[in-house]
User: Fold these one by one.
Assistant:
Number 1:
Amino acid sequence: MTDSHKESLESLVAKARTGDSQAFSTIVRQLMNQIAALTYRMTGERESALDLAQDTFVSAWENLRGYRGEASFTNWIYRIATNKTLNYLKAGARRETVGELPDEIIDTTAVDPEKRLARKELAGRVLQFMHNLPPQQRIIFELRFYKGMPFEEIARATDRALGTVKTGYREAVKKLRNTASKKGWQ
Amino acid sequence: MDCACAREILQLSFGSDDLPKELQDHLQDCQTCQAYRDELARLASGLGSDNDFVLSDADLERSVRKVDNAIKARRPVSATPFTWLRPLARVAAVLLIVGALYSSRTDFDWPGQNAEVSDTSGVKLVDGRDDTPEEEMDEGFVSILIDDYSSSGYFEAGEALLGDISEEELEYLAENFEVGELL
């Protein structure tokens, strides 16, 4: 994210905190993709992922007063998305198998067929790997690897001890090696 | 640093190019750990990045619209221009309640509480602060009583009324008034 974009997000957040729903709508437009990516990789389900992403922003709007700026606004939103997704997974509403990635959730119109296929294969591989992880490890891996969140913030976001978070990430990496070895991934 | 420690750090650094100097020094001299580092790097690149996930325009627009509609249905979270009135309104409500309780518990002369009632001839029949001793019978009152209730049409009322009168009062009536069949 460029400095100007980051600054823009901060000023949008400041406006949204005063009740400016238009500013918040702009925030939603800017961050929806990142949040939907998280919820999709966590659930593997298109509709659920979109619902969870939308619910995340609605909760964020309702709790804007709770955002005190200790973490970045984006990380604060990730925390909300994480909690909602974990609750969803705990409720047991998840698919047993992860099939092909539906075309419509990922925009493939801008890429050529070869790249489109590669992107689909990659996404499918990711989902296969992620869904071999238990939910807590899955979210730790998502926040660390895909969102670049420091371990300390992941610990706060998941209400886990720092050591637990680090151990969870290492275990996920080991499982990735095993999965790749079994599946013959290059 | 030994190889076990180096592997742990490589796992924790998975997806990151930022390695601690101590680890870099170990990797310079250890081919086994170099191979492990290279393997993890390949796996990381095989997982892509967050930017590989791009929501379709249709889903993005639909999602933004749903969020807009949902938050419009809710109250704004920010301070309204009149939130400073809320504490004042609370104080005013408390004062009203206290005032109402206070006035209901104090002696208060409600209108009509001690009203005097008179008959059509102007004789005072009911005194709100009636302190007439029982042994004193108001002659005017008795006379009116008899006049009002001694006719044949009022025998029942008269009997009911006279039923409450003591024997002394009955004697008084008999001695001083022609009450006839009434008694």
Number 2:
Amino acid sequence: MTETPCPELEQLFNDLEAGHGPALDHSKGCEACKALLEEHRQLEKDLYRLADPLPPPDLVHKVMAAVAKQPRPLGAEVRVGLTILLAAGLLAVLSLLGTGVGAGTFGTQLASYLIDARAVIAAVGRALLSLWQAAGIAVASGSLVVLVVSLLSLRKLSQSPAAREAQV
Amino acid sequence: MAAHEGDRSGALQWAADVRAARGGNPSAFEALVRSVQRPVYGLCLRLLRSEAESAEVAQETFLRAYQNLGKYDESRPFDLWVLAIARNLCLDVLRRRQKHSPDPIDDLKDTLPSGETGAEERAIQQQERMSLEAAVSTLPPEDREVLALYYVQKRTTKEIASVMGVAPGTIMARLFRAREKLRKLMPKEEVPS
């Protein structure tokens, strides 16, 4: 009986995975190779019994606190704003129609409103020009202060409660 | 079939949560975090061998995932995408560690869990697993990683290749080499099955 030398272990496992091969054929008659395969099989069994540890109980809380500090996605805010605008516009149209004005009269009313609005805008423009000529700098400074304060207040209001909590 | 259906419903749930999270819904992102926190933390702990660092890296992983939700490809399983982020962050930590003196490694024997069986058998198995965990923790990071993903998290070779960024055909060879190193480290005694 000729004894073939034991194959490289990696070749043996390649053949085992493929289900055929000279190394696998050799192992069927070789006690050393059989023992090696059995050790690997037992090791695999033990490895499969290992489990991932439980994460720290506060991991999710810490992640969400960090996420809350991130800027909100712009798309969401634009969508919300557009939705509010559309809803307001729809409500205005519906209430106009609801007063019994009717679609045709609504068109006439809208047209006369726009014509009147032109006159109003022109009048407001003339008033602003007069104001500017009289006290331009004071008015501009005051308006700028009001604008900045309003924007800062709006920004603070728009922060989520979680972000405010995280800051605390 | 049931496993496939479970996978499909899991994938659909992830897709729905990702879309909601992209829209700014924090509860949706929290659900995503809860669904994958254990495998992410587990991988970090096996790579870094430090509870404190693993918790930090896991937290950073989810933050990066949130910041890059817009770039996430919904055709790819969410858990694999997050695991890839975690892996890259862990490798950064390991590279930084190599530049400095090595830190003392937490004793993982008391950290990593045992499976659920009972009584005296559990005590024996606990002993065996502590020995196995200790042996695994001495292997190089790339070996620990592939063993953890395949045996602990039960990932397929294709999934592991996706996380590690290598060809799927190399995974079995890596597994074999890691197992062979482990076999040489383990004491040669009868293990009751």
